[in-house]
Amino acid sequence: HTKASLYQTFPAEEAFELAKRLEIHYTPKHGSWLNIAEIELNVMTRQCLKRRISKIEKLSQQLSAWEQERNSSKATVQWQFKTTDARIKLASLYPKLIRPVIDLASH
What we know:
- By secondary structure, the chain is mainly α.
- It folds into two domains: 1-29, no CATH class; 31-92, no CATH class.
- The chain is 53% helix and 0% strand.
């Protein structure tokens, strides 16, 4: 969407006032930023939430400690990889080519 879509929904004066308050941030078409968030949540789950935590206060403390450690270590997410690696990691997403069997004896 753009700010112009506000003018399709609201009267011009109201659309103008709303448009002044908006700052549009474009995200990747295919949601690459979601991949980064998903990777980080997976790391948190493996490192912090792999056991049962019975009290919400304890959970909050554990998550806060994990977050502080993660931030202080300046952890990064390596989410891009080469095409050859993608074909291995994402093999299930690539179409399977079926090659016809040609019977040379019948020709």
